[in-house]
Amino acid sequence: MLDEARGAEEAALAASGGPVPLAALSGERWVTSHLGTNCADLLERACVDLVGFHPDVRYRTNDIMVMFAMVAHGGAVSVMPDLAFAEQQPGIVTRPLDGEPLRRRMVLWTRAGADGRPSVRALLDALRVSAGDLAGRRPGLARGPRVPAGS
Prior knowledge:
Elements: E1 2-3, H1 8-16, E2 29-32, H2 38-51, E3 56-60, H3 64-73, E4 92-93, H4 118-137
Parallel strand pairs: 2-3
Antiparallel strand pairs: 1-4
């Protein structure tokens, strides 16, 4: 995510319409979640392992609306999951990262036998339907194989 009002280089990246190389953001100020969260860990690993720089994280919050505000008004960039729907936020330009996409895995665990309870079964069924619908509407999302119970 890029702030529309930032400097010339960032404005050019936002206006390009195309993917942004992560290396092009090495000198930027970043906003991400608190240390030890998946989002913060993913950003650090991607910047260090893929490009060789430590992001200059100036702002940390676990509130996605605060992250949006920091990008839109605070002069920061961020990496957001596709589920954040950042492209719908005023003052924010979204661009995919160039190269191999960053991925995270979300897993739902239940106790053995819990899916036999009607309330748990109903919740699991609703989550599967919702995840399938979301994956159908958002091309960046992919559903992995369902692991059978007891595996």
